[in-house]
Design goal:
The chain is mostly helical and 254 residues long. The chain folds into two domains: 1-26 and 142-254, no CATH class; 31-139, no CATH class. It contains seven helices and two strands, in the order H-E-H-H-E-H-H-H-H. It has helices at 2-27, 46-70, 76-103, 112-136, 143-167, 191-207, 210-238, and strands spanning 43-44, 110-111. The chain is globular. The N and C termini lie far apart (42 Å). Belongs to the steroid 5-alpha reductase family. The chain crosses the membrane at residues 7-28, 48-71, 109-127, 139-160. InterPro entries: 3-oxo-5-alpha-steroid_4-DH (IPR016636), 3-oxo-5_a-steroid_4-DH_C (IPR001104), SRD5A/TECR (IPR039357). Residues 109-253 form the 3-oxo-5-alpha-steroid 4-dehydrogenase C-terminal domain.
Length: 254
């Protein structure tokens, strides 16, 4: 009971902090990337920052799965359920922590404060999702589970594709910004943010748990304001050159 209550309060804390972050980020852009600010600490090289801050969310669920397989007495159904429910989470953070940093060309350094906050969040969320699924997760194959897998796969593919579009905008040695085209960028300025929202909405449908829903809401609350600021920046930077039908985060709406 104590463990389940802990996970409940961790989930509710994530939801509340997501709501707070949403309103803060509406007025204060995230201080990294094009909005990097030295007031938020010394710079951390982009490749190192992404590797270190994201790796806990990959290692923690892997540890839980290994512990379940080799050090706990459990039936095969429990192991199967845990793997099927955690697999998308592990896949995302494997790509984000070990593959994505290697693909960064000349990414801007990340200030220490957002780097440390991301690192702490990945520990927090890695434990929350893994601990809940290992102890209470139950996989049942039905339409909702299939939709969850499909949404997650579509979101992850869109995320990777959007990152590839952004990387290909500059040739080696080039500086400055260009307008991204193709994929979800045909619809929204925050294509990678929309893709991530789709990913974790699928994960929430698959798991049907409060921690997964909290993570999906937290993701939307953090990425939507960032997409909005990106959209305003593109409009200011490129003016009439920027596609007039492109929205910030929700196609055809916002």
């Amino acid at each position: 009971m104590i463990h389940s209550e802990l996970l409940f309060y961790l989930s509710m804390t994530m939801i509340v902090s997501g709501i707070v972050a949403f309103f803060v980020l509406l007025f204060v852009p995230s201080p990294y990337g094009r909005n990097a600010n030295s007031a938020f600490g010394p710079p951390v090289p982009a490749k190192i920052a992404w590797l270190i801050q994201e790796i806990p969310a990959f290692l923690i669920p892997v540890y839980f799965i290994i512990e379940l397989l080799f050090f706990k007495t459990s039936d095969s159904a429990n192991v199967r359920d845990a793997i099927l429910l955690l697999a998308p989470f592990i896949m995302h953070y494997f790509q984000r922590s070990l593959i994505y940093p290697m693909l960064i060309r000349e990414g801007k350094p990340m200030p220490a404060v957002p780097f440390l906050l991301a690192f702490i969040f990945c520990i927090y969320n890695g434990y929350l999702q893994s601990s809940y699924i290992i102890n209470y997760g139950y996989f049942h194959w039905d339409f909702i589970s299939a939709a969850g897998y499909a949404l997650f796969a579509a979101g992850m593919a869109g995320n990777i594709h959007s990152d590839q579009i952004l990387r290909s905008l500059r040739k080696p040695g080039e500086t400055g910004y260009k307008i991204p085209h193709g994929g979800l960028f045909s619809l929204v300025s925050g294509a990678n943010f929309l893709a991530e929202i789709i990913e974790w909405t699928g994960f929430a449908l698959l798991n049907r748990s409060l921690p997964a829903v909290a993570f999906a809401l937290f993701t939307a609350a953090n990425t939507a304001p960032r997409a909005w600021h990106h959209h305003l920046w593109y409009l200011k930077k490129f003016g009439d050159e920027y596609p007039k039908n492109r929205k910030a985060i929700l196609p055809y709406l916002i």
